[in-house]
From TrEMBL:
Residue ranges of every copy of the AB hydrolase-1 domain listed in the record: 5-222
Name this polypeptide is given: Pimeloyl-[acyl-carrier protein] methyl ester esterase
Domain of life: Bacteria
Enzyme category, top tier: hydrolase
EC number, UniProt record: 3.1.1.85
Molecular function as annotated in GO: pimelyl-[acyl-carrier protein] methyl ester esterase activity
Pfam families hit by this protein: Abhydrolase_6
UniProt keywords, alphabetically: Hydrolase
InterPro entries in the cross-refs: AB_hydrolase_1, AB_hydrolase_fold, AB_hydrolase_sf
């Protein structure tokens, strides 16, 4: 078997986010999708990933999972042989986003987490011109299964996360930067920044996809990941 691959899902997502990648990439290697909702600190979440991960592994993450992957790499660069950063953001949380998150946490305390997901978050997950009710339904199911405590922990971890641009400037392992062409949550400029920080990285833009190319265009995303794993 080839070196294991650890995948970190986005906020309010689980292994279903990577269903196609698990099925395809798992034929040649162990693919491990970590749970990332047990703590409200990005640093502690990274420590937990490292406790459970193999000694050396390829690492990929999407959205919050990509942010966490950067922290994992910061803590243990010698254990990560490859890095895939998908639809993510190397910067600390902007103040206006923190303000919105405060409202979300207040609403969650009133039992409105699923309303937030349905009304505010999930509509921005897919390409704005290509409706995908199937993906929106799946995202609601994942949010329902993960629950309020997960939403709160992940919101706080994202709110208080550090800027990782210095971390990325030190990356020398084979790296993939991947995004859906119409990512409304982590737009192109975030990925351009990562490419500037990691000049040797492959940069792949998935057409006809938004924030969740693993679900919107699974075959194209898996092809890009497979090419990265062969570098």
């Amino acid at each position: 078997m080839k070196e294991p691959l650890v995948l970190l899902p986005g906020m309010m997502c689980d292994e279903r986010l990577f269903a196609h990648q698990l099925a395809s990439l798992g034929e040649e290697r162990e693919v491990i999708v970590m749970k990332i909702h047990g703590h409200d600190s990005m640093s502690i979440l990274a420590e937990e990933v490292l406790k459970k991960a193999p000694e050396r592994f390829s690492l990929g993450g999407l959205s919050m999972g990509g942010i966490l992957a950067m922290e994992v790499f910061r803590q243990a660069p010698d254990r990560v042989s490859r890095l895939a950063l998908m639809d993510t953001n190397p910067r600390a949380e902007a103040e206006e986003v923190k303000d919105g998150r405060k409202v979300h946490l207040e609403r969650t305390a009133k039992g409105e987490m699923l309303d937030i997901m349905r009304e505010i978050m999930i509509p921005k997950y897919v390409h704005r011109d290509i409706p995908r009710p199937d993906i929106e339904k799946l995202c609601m199911e994942m949010a329902r299964d993960l629950g309020d405590e997960c939403f709160i922990n992940q919101s706080l971890a994202l709110r208080d996360r550090p800027d990782q641009q210095d971390t990325l400037s030190k990356v020398t392992v084979p790296t993939l930067i991947l995004m859906g062409e119409d990512d409304q949550l982590c737009p192109r400029d975030r990925h351009d920044t990562m490419k500037l920080l990691i000049p040797h990285a492959d940069f792949v833009v998935i057409p006809f996809a938004g924030h969740l190319p693993t679900l919107e265009k699974p075959e194209a995303t898996t092809r890009a990941l497979n090419a990265w794993l062969k570098r």
